[in-house]
């Protein structure tokens, strides 16, 4: 597979327990582990992804599929549902009422750097407006060192609205973050 991945059809579904082995595999890959720094034991994946998969917490873990093949993960939540995170983010960027946030990864390193990330981000933004009519904006903090990630956000239409220190997922990458935002279209 060479070149841009602009022609495939993107679909989404909620992550289920049957997907945990795939998530563990993705989280172990160096290109993901550098930024997510997640315990990949079966117990940790069950602990961290299970409540959303069972509908026991307000966040949504969405599996991104390209032509039916799982390619990535997006975690989406309303910031107000996580007050500590909202307070931390509010210290470096204005957060409107009704704001959401997302986190994301592409599982296969062979699929990175080919336009898929920005396509997935633009699509999940559109779907957030449809799925959550009260969503006013989407804010996304990203480590300043993760140039590929913040460039994908920019290509998906988000703009940088803040920068400052946040607790990083991986202490090795440092606390410097950029915050990106997109507002619901009028």
Automatic annotation (TrEMBL):
InterPro entries, alphabetized: Acyl_CoA_acyltransferase (IPR016181), GNAT_dom (IPR000182)
One example GO MF annotation: N-acyltransferase activity
Keyword check for Ubl conjugation: no
Domain N-acetyltransferase, first and last residues per copy: 10-185
Cited Pfam families: Acetyltransf_8
UniProtKB keywords: Antibiotic resistance
GO BP field: response to antibiotic
SUPFAM superfamilies: Acyl-CoA N-acyltransferases (Nat)
Coiled-coil stretches noted in the UniProt entry, renumbered to this chain: none
Domain of life of the source: Bacteria
The protein, known as: N-acetyltransferase domain-containing protein
Organism of provenance: Actinomadura rubrobrunea
């Amino acid at each position: 597979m060479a070149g841009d991945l602009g022609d495939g059809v993107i679909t989404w579904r909620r992550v289920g327990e049957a997907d945990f082995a795939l998530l563990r595999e993705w989280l172990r890959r160096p290109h993901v582990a550098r930024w997510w720094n997640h315990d990949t034991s079966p117990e940790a994946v069950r602990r961290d992804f299970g409540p959303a998969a069972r509908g026991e917490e307000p966040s949504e873990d969405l599996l991104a599929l390209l032509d039916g093949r799982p390619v990535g993960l997006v975690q989406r939540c309303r910031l107000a549902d996580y007050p500590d995170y909202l307070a931390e983010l509010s210290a470096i960027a204005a957060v409107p009422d009704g704001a959401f946030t997302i986190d994301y990864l592409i599982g296969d390193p062979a699929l990175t750097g080919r336009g898929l990330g920005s396509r997935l981000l633009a699509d999940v933004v559109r779907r957030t407006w449809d799925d959550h009519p009260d969503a006013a904006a989407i804010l996304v903090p990203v480590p300043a060192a993760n140039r590929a990630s913040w460039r994908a956000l920019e290509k998906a239409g988000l703009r940088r609205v803040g920068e400052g220190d946040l607790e990083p997922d991986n202490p090795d990458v440092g606390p410097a973050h950029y915050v990106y935002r997109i507002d619901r279209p009028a």
